[in-house]
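Open question from group meeting: does this chain pack into something compact, or does most of it stay loose? Before anyone orders reagents, we agreed to write out a predicted structure and look at it together. Recording both the input and the output here so the notebook holds the full record.
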Amino acid sequence: MTTSAIRKRETTGAFALIDSLVRHNVKHVFGYPGGAILPIYDELYAWEKEGFIEHLLVRHEQGATHAADAYSRSTGRVGVCFGTSGPGATNLVTGIATAHMDSVPLVVITGQVSRSFIGTDAFQEVDIFGITLPVVKHSYVVRDTTQMSRIVAASFFIAKYGRPGPVLIDVPKDVGLEQIDYTPVEPGNVTLLGCPASPKQDIRRIEQAANLILQANQPLLYIGGGAIISESHQEVAELSQLLQIPVATTLMGKGIIDETSPLSLGMLGMHGTVYANYAVSECDLLLALGARFDDRVTGKLDEFASHAQVVHIDIDPAEIGKNRIPQIGIVGEVKEVLQQLLNVLKKADKINHEQTQPWRKRLNRWRNEYPLLLPRNSQSLSPQEVIYEIGRTSPDAYWTTDVGQHQMWAAQFIKTYQRHWVTSAGLGTMGYGLPSAVGVQVAHPNSQVICISGDASFQMNIQELGTVAQYGLPIKIVLLNNRWQGMVRQWQQAFYGERYSHSNMEKGAPNFVRIAESYGIKGMMVKTREELETSISTAAKYDGPILIDIHVIPDTNCYPMVAPGKSNSQMLGV
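Structure tokens returned:
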């Protein structure tokens, strides 16, 4: 495209910014305007009018980061969001930290007070560069307007390069207004000092890993979010099938293989399946792919896979040996390393499936002995059966969740695909579910998007119903309403002597159906099994947004559960 398609005049910093975004194939931006960023929004107006880019107006800046984050997770592309200076910028911080913890590539653009006012405590001035340093991959303050296009190109490169993450661009107001002689920097045409070349694989390490796999009697694949990020689903499935190796995933790795496969053990860790946790406790070889051995997965670290030799593959060298020292550590993109590993394994004289058959039989026995339970009370609905029924009737949907018990039940019972599962894992951000559903629906306008939330989490960003309504996004919101902060209540019951300090949400609970209807969104209340069946059928046929407020048993606990400080083989509720 040419800049003359918008207007013929000397270009400004704001022009250079929007033009650079369009050159990087940015189709959608999520944000909220304000004083310091108005030059950018004024420039955006012309570009939107010509159909080059679309801006989605959220109701709170945190919603912008979560929507951009989910847009990225569900597509693999870099998400983009805008916020103004001061409180607008600080409202973005939780979403930036959420993306940072889960390695999501974002470019976050904030307005800032004019350059001459920086450091004077001007109106709506904060040092967002300094505030966000611990939770970004890189940051820029644009002080030289002529560098705008180069900074944008560098930001997109950094956000995606190696282990992905968020990049901040802070744009002073006068930079947006300043006129420059503009020379665009095209995507990829940027040289960055300090970015190492992709690691060359030591074929000897890969051959050693292959030998360990071929010798193992009880191997297990432990798959994290890095395998999803690197689009490794075909390679993971091929490796699992070739050697008949069972697969356990983290919350971030969910969907990497067909979850109905007999080789799929589901999620492991604090609320993982019994058989996945027993498997990791008894395996003799653990193949960790794009996973970071975090505390919610490992339980008591020195008892995690304590009988196993470990092969750890990760793009980030800092993760190798950080929590667990592997016998073989391989730094590289999971997809590329697996391709080389598969090439070596396929040249093996013989792959002996009989060698590992007793292991698979043992896992199947555990699967039959310790299935995930679906409580069915004749009078009331259990949250597990609600999630199971909705998951069963919507096999191709994209799923977003908030954080809490409903998130863990959704991870346990919903069978889904790579990039169809969108949730806040590392930071555990309540309020993520609804704005993330906005991002996914914008990215996939012709797909069904279902948001699973709880009454406590939902109220943290309930205002994004306005965004859903404004753009007519046909999101289906399933609200599991137990009138509690459910996971907090469960911990207070189990570990704090049933002292339920400020976790009950019944007093002051809103009528969620009326709130939805006040935004022009269809609302339904469900209290019985018959009403559940009707609401699922209605939602499936309805072509607009809908909120289903489902009243479930208040004091249901999420099991299995590995208590803090315990090993994965010591689960409550088994």
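Observations to bring back to the group:
The first strand starts at residue 11 and ends at 12.
Residues 383-558 form a domain with the Rossmann fold fold (CATH 3.40.50.970).
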